[in-house]
Write a structure and sequence with these properties.
Blueprint lengths: L1 H23 L3 H24 L8 H7 L4 H10 L2 H4 L3 H4 L9 H24 L1
Helix pairs in contact: 1-2, 1-7, 2-3, 2-7, 3-4, 4-7
């Protein structure tokens, strides 16, 4: 099972790099999407380690609560969860997603994703 955990976590780190690179090129909606993906894949890596099974969900709050995450991580997850849909679909974003995000929102989402990733990394190393 260790390889599967590593695959999820390494992909989370690659997604974080994508989010960072996309922010630099002012592709804010795509940066936000990859920030959400960073958090999701990070949490799923820890979930697999802790629960010894995978889970099919995009609900980051559910994952964080299942992992007994601290409240600040749960709060970040609550803000990141909707971005799985709203960054991709005009009907979910009530307009073109690329018009719905700004540099400030992309920076904030990137910061939250990094906080989730760092917490997961600590937890992966502790247990």
């Amino acid at each position: 099972m260790r390889k599967e955990i590593d695959y999820w976590y390494e992909q989370a780190k690659a997604d974080l790099k994508s989010a960072t690179d996309l922010l630099k090129t002012e592709n804010f909606y795509a940066s936000v999407f990859f920030s959400q993906q960073t958090a999701e894949k990070s949490l799923k890596s820890l979930y697999i380690k802790e629960k010894r099974t995978s889970v099919k969900t995009h609900n980051l709050v559910y994952l964080a609560r299942e992992l007994n995450a601290p409240q600040n991580i749960i709060n970040d997850c609550a803000e990141l969860t909707p971005d799985y849909i709203t960054t991709r679909y005009p009907d979910a974003a009530t307009g073109a997603p690329f018009e719905s995000y700004t540099r400030e929102s992309a920076e904030r989402h990137l910061m939250m994703a990094e906080e989730v990733r760092k917490w997961v990394e600590i937890m992966l190393l502790m247990k």
